């Protein structure tokens, strides 16, 4: 099979993995056949370009500080022994199967990198053999990129379920980030939809990564020559909507993963109800037949996740067993504030940082700027706006001498004004909401 065709198939098979925060752009890995655009010539064929400049398989991802990076996001192989109901690559799917060789993938990555098409590689794989054998292939690509190719770009490797601690340690030597996908929020759902996977093994891998990260950090404190271990940490992916767990269960799990394993990110991936090739396009009967991916739910979970990581909220403050779903029409911070009207309005001239963080319309950056500015100046509404506060939201929750806030308006009125009526226009803010 031509390299271009392999790339088309193996980039297509990787696009549903959200654990590298890709843009989710539909045209990501798809080749523009017959577009007439000049492709990228390689020794083994020609890789068509997407749009004006981006080669097939290249997608965009965001770093923790909000920088956009381009990654070659591919599978090593889409051959898989497992039959996870939600996955396009599952063993029962009637799809064309192929694998790269390590040699091909190393050359391809280096060619893309040298031409500035990519700044990194995201590499996963179907489980075509024993876990350690598959993992060894991914490691080989990363190792050869670093040692033979002098590759200084970003590398994200997926940890194949069941990988041994020795291989995890080796993967962390070459990769910037590792991720073991937890996929579903409970063992029960995992057993039902992905019976060959084990929550215990997945968590075991996360624990191993966390231990190795800590060891490396400690080691480097005493000796800066000691090697790094996956310096960009670990992440995971949770599929939302393929199983019956509610937002409360999902958020509680994420919170526990952050605490126990020091994860940098949990990525939420709205379940996409794709029919099965070879089964008349029918959905696996174990999956819910929903009209489309629950994108609003995914978005609200991301917002709630930001509250956990940056706004010092605890999961049980956002949701409870009695109120298990995030409000689809309100961002979770506003929803929380409307449930705690007794704590508002907040005097922005005097409130602590932690209290400011809880005000809708005041973000992490604007809260810090408020603290700096008010040391020497009396705050005004204009000044707050300049500091990044969204006054049309914050005005219902703050007090400030000389500013006519709307803190006395009734809850139903504020709720109506601050609702996204249909979840449209949902754009995940970086920090300030
Ligand atoms: S292990 Fe499951 S999720 Fe991973 S490629 Fe195979 S079928 Fe898909």
Explain what you see:
The protein is an alpha/beta fold and 433 residues long. The protein folds into 2 domains: 3-228, TIM Barrel (Alpha-Beta Barrel), CATH 3.20.20; 340-418, no CATH class. It has 15 helices and 13 strands. It has a 7-stranded mixed beta sheet. Strands 1-2 form a two-stranded antiparallel ribbon. Helix 3 (131-147) packs parallel to helix 4 (165-174). The radius of gyration is 24 Å and the shape is globular. The termini are far apart. The model is unreliable at 22-45, 47-53 and 422-433 (pLDDT under 50). Iron/sulfur cluster binds at residues 80, 82, 84, 87, 89-90, 126-127, 194.
Number of domains: 2
The secondary-structure class comes to alpha/beta
CATH architecture call of the largest domain: Alpha-Beta Barrel
The ordered string of helix (H) and strand (E) elements is HEEEEEEHEHEHEHHEHEHHHEHHHHEH
Question: Could you please say which CATH topology of the largest domain applies here?
Answer: TIM Barrel
State which percent range the strand residues make up. Answer: 5-15%
Give the proportion of residues in helices: 25-40%
Rounded to the nearest angstrom, the radius of gyration is 24 Å
The low-confidence runs, each spanning 5 or more residues with pLDDT under 50, are 22-45, 47-53, 422-433
State the separation between the terminal residues, measured CA to CA: 49 Å
How many runs of DSSP E, i.e. beta strands? 13
What sort of overall outline do the alpha carbons produce when their principal axes are compared? globular
Looking across the biggest beta sheet, what order are the strands in?
5-6-7-8-9-10-11
Compounds present? iron/sulfur cluster
- Mean pLDDT over the residues: 87
CATH class of the largest domain: Alpha Beta
